[in-house]
Amino acid sequence: MDKFSRICEKIINVAYKYGYETPEAFTKAFGKMHGISPSAAREPGANLKAYPKLSFHISIKGDKDMDYKIVDKGSFTVVGKQRKITMVDGENFKQVPKFWGDCMNDGSYQWLCSKTGKLGVLGICKDFGKDEFNYMIGVEEVKDALPEGYVSANIPAVTWAIFESVGALPEAIQDLTRRIFTEWLPSTGYQHDCAPELEVYPEGDIHSPDYKCEIWIPVKK
After folding, report:
1. 76-86 and 151-155: which strand pairing?
2. Which of 94, 178, 197, 198 could, after both became Cys, cross-link 216 (CB 3.0–4.6 A)?
3. Mean pLDDT of 58-81
């Protein structure tokens, strides 16, 4: 059986599983929702949309679509400053912005900005424990000798779900983070893989309502 036949067979199975009368009807509905065909969605880096189920409580959740793409990337090394962060009572949403402020005040952020690679400045959540994790503000590995107080870490080769955040920091990225874990992960068939999470910050005005950055979540089916 050739590749085209295998893809068609799987599309037929999915179409009938979810109640479509014909594979063509499923393909048409899929294209209308995602803008690409089911076979094109299998290609690395394809942009898809997630529509979490509506849940009716005091307010309606999951009523906004979330743009994301799935990308495979090889391992790479990062360097930067690191701090232990607690998640008890949501303290991580306060401690992480404070860490960024401290690095900006002591010159660490400026040094990292001068060494940025393709990805820009990174926020890296790693070494997760029961109620805490290490948060690293860093960049891709640099050739220069590291100043005192800086550390290096390896980011393994994994599959990433990449989400775009639009809005002023830190509110926009914190809101997107909550939605990823409460809406997207439970509704898409993906689960968190055992690897760090990344925040990718390009140059720009982080207080602008139009500022764009990304959240990278390691995932597996």
Report:
1. antiparallel
2. 198
3. 79
Do the bridges between strand 158-166 and strand 212-220 make them parallel or antiparallel, or are there none, so unpaired? antiparallel
Tell me the pLDDT of the chain averaged across its residues: 86
Lookup: tokens for 144: 């220069």
58 pLDDT more than 80: no
Q: What is the pLDDT of residues 176-190, one digit of tens each?
A: 999 999 999 998 989
Answering whether pTM is above 0.85, one says no
Give me the pLDDT at residue 3, please: 46
Neighbours of 7 (CB within 10 A): 14
SS (H, E, C) 123-143: EEEECCCCCEEEEEEEEECCC
Q: Which two tokens stand for residue 107?
A: 């010159």
**Token pair listed for 213:** 């950055």
Q: Three-state SS string across 1-48, please?
A: CCHHHHHHHHHHHHHHHCCCCCHHHHHHHHHHHHCCCHHHHCCCCCEE
Q: Which is it for the CA torsion 9, 11, 16, 17, positive or negative?
A: positive
